[in-house]
Design goal:
The protein has a 5-stranded antiparallel β-sheet, with helices on one face. The protein is built from 3 helices and 5 strands, in the order E-H-E-E-E-E-H-H. By secondary structure, it is an alpha+beta fold.
Length: 100
């Protein structure tokens, strides 16, 4: 497996507000894929674990919520690891927008 993508996304919302936004936004990820996809999610304390399955690929991710940032770790399957840099940039942009 390729090296996971890690990104820290700063915010000024506080832990509870971020948890609420993440809970409401993660389910919408499936809509981003042609033909749709499937999202499974679960919280363990302040860590949101979720997987997105689409087009024969499964991406596992964790989002750890802190008072001032969210630490994201995305485990890409080998086929998608080629696009890691683009995915990292998209994650930074979209996640920052979600947390504003």
């Amino acid at each position: 497996m390729a090296e996971p993508i890690t990104v820290d996304i700063p915010h000024k919302l506080g832990r509870e507000a971020v948890r609420a936004r993440l809970a409401g936004g993660v389910g919408k990820l499936a809509d981003m894929f042609p033909g749709g996809g499937h999202v499974e999610q679960r919280w363990e304390g302040d860590v949101l674990h979720f997987t997105v399955s689409a087009m024969g690929q499964t991406i596992a991710s964790r989002l750890e919520v802190f008072e001032d940032r969210v630490h994201a770790v995305v485990d890409l399957p080998p086929m998608l690891a080629l696009f890691a840099a683009k995915i990292r940039e998209k994650l930074k942009t979209k996640a920052t927008t979600l947390l504003k």
